[in-house]
Design a protein that fits this description.
Elements: H1 2-17, E1 27-28, H2 38-46, E2 51-53, H3 56-65, E3 77-80, E4 97-104, E5 107-114, E6 122-124, E7 126-128
Parallel strand pairs: 3-6
Antiparallel strand pairs: 1-7, 2-7, 3-4, 4-5
Length: 130
């Protein structure tokens, strides 16, 4: 996961040097990993050099540019495998937390979840390299 994210940052850096106004990164909002836990998705990404987990900032930017994605509470919630919730030192042993974004009562809600939790109502957002 770390190796893919560093490669992604190198691509971003290369385009920023050239003063591009727009950077397009292939990404998905969670359908590819629907009904999989964040822990399982992170494990799958460790063996991939092309896919990396998106975090809160990335998903929030995608939500701002695609507001229809969160128009109703019947859409797939988005888990964010690119960010850990809290520091590992402050959590009890075995408590691996992740962050999710969904719609409750017409409002977008960002909340912590247990990383081993998998539901049919959520999927992990990921980005892809070249």
């Amino acid at each position: 996961r770390e190796r893919s994210y560093r490669a992604f940052l190198a691509i971003v850096d290369r385009y920023v040097v050239h003063d591009c106004d727009i950077l397009i990164v292939p990404a998905q909002f969670g359908l590819r990993h629907a009904a999989k836990s964040v822990a399982r998705v992170r494990q799958a990404m460790r063996s991939s050099d092309r896919e990396f987990g998106l975090g809160v900032f990335d998903v929030a930017c995608m939500a701002l540019t695609n507001p229809e994605r969160f128009a109703t509470s019947h859409t797939l919630d988005v888990d964010m495998p690119g960010d850990d919730y809290g520091s590992n030192d402050s959590r009890p042993s075995g408590q691996d937390l992740a962050i999710t974004m969904g719609v409750i009562g017409g409002r977008i809600v960002i909340a912590p979840i247990h990383a081993s939790l998998a539901t049919v109502y959520a999927g992990s957002a990921t980005g892809f390299l070249g």
